[in-house]
Design a protein that fits this description.
This protein is α+β, with helices and mostly antiparallel strands. It is built from 1 helix and 6 strands; from the N terminus they run αββββββ. The chain has one helix at residues 2-26; strands at residues 32-38, 41-50, 53-60, 71-77, 84-92, 103-111.
Length: 115
Amino acid sequence: GQANAVEGAAASVAGSLIGGWLNNQFGDVVRSLDVRSGATGAKFNLAGKYKGVRYSFGGGTNVLQDLSTANIKVEYPLPLVENLLLRFERRETVNDLYQSDEMVNELGLKYRFKF
């Protein structure tokens, strides 16, 4: 229990430091790198923005050997309507009962409200 908490905190701090360095080197192209340790192993998420297109890429350590297991999200702003985005997302299914290798593919429109 306590060892897992220390490992999780260390992974979070390391991800934050590396993410900050990447952001300093590449600007908004790499906005953040989140690393966390959980019951199923280490997971990471790299997020950024390039020419208005926002992206997120991540998953478990198995992503490094098999890209088909990666969680990917891309949001592309449509040029005619300022806050309308075309969104593509590929992610793991959310299932509390058992570990699944199924992936969900979504394509949608997203309207962003600003307050």
